[in-house]
Amino acid sequence: MAYEHILYEVSDRIATITLNRPDRMNAWTPVMERDVRHAMEASSTDDNVRVIVLTGAGRAFCAGADMDALKGLDPDDVRRASNLPPFDMNRRPDWQTRYGYYPSIRKPVIAMLNGATAGIGLVHALYCDLRFAADNTVFTTAFARRGLIAEHGISWMLPRIVGHANAMDLLLSARRVSSEEALRIGLVNRLCPPEKLREDTYAYARDLADLVSPSAMAVIKRQLYEVPFQTLAEAMIEANREMMVALNGSDFREGVASFMEKRPPRFTGR
Could you give the 3-state DSSP secondary structure of residue 252? Predict the structure, then answer.
């Protein structure tokens, strides 16, 4: 597929999806929405990809919705978008929402936040599994200052990342949040000097791609996203079931063998 508003590449078993409207601070558009969704699907089904990095070109990750598009937004657009075809028919139906398909991707998705992260840009960063940010990045939910509500599931995701009180503050005030505060409240996992952000992010991504079992990562990710819907007993039962599967898998045998033989693992994801 030819992409219009993103760049897509795969190298060293890492797929990179780059929002590519740097002249507009990567403001979100319907075309970008289509491109990102397709690229995420392509990454999720590519056996040569073990980790996905989502980032922005230029000086911003994503400064929010394109205001020209927002001015002419038809309220029916929200209704139509709720009827998108499923990301994958074999995955949980409650993950088949406009942007909530990220948890159904069986690979780690890392947001590499290279600058302003606002509104719908913050929504996408939150749906990623990990967030590495440049230490000059500024964050804002933005919605309340545009007369909008907490959109696209951010009211569910944000409290689970930063806690209820912090989420209430960030959503009600829509104030600007510094990178230092973002790290303190757990909004991001790691801060890096801008010139080292790419190096540090890809070093982490390569570590996952080269040294961690793909099958283990897939199950662990699913476990963490399913826990809010489970009791402790249900989580334990599910973990025991998955442990039996893992013990019979080739990744477990390879993990033990590589440790005993003091060599890098050669995981297959099985």
Answer: helix
Q: Map residue 125 onto helix, strand or coil.
A: helix
Contacts of 15 (CB under 8 A, 6+ apart): 8, 9, 39, 42, 43, 46, 49, 51, 52, 53
Q: What Å distances lie between residue 108 and 13, 134, 194, CA to CA?
A: 12, 20, 22
Question: For residue 228, what are the CA distances in angstroms to 156, 185, 192, 196, 231?
Answer: 11, 20, 31, 35, 8
Cα–Cα dist 99/97, whole Å: 6
Q: Are strands 190-192 and 109-113 parallel, antiparallel or unpaired?
A: unpaired
pTM above 0.85, yes or no: yes
Tell me the CATH architecture of domain 6-208: Alpha-Beta Complex (3.90)
Which residue, 51, 37, 48, 52, is CA-closest to 6? Answer: 37
- Give the model confidence (pLDDT) of 97-153 as tens digits: 677 789 999 999 999 999 999 999 999 999 999 999 999 999 999 888 888 888 888
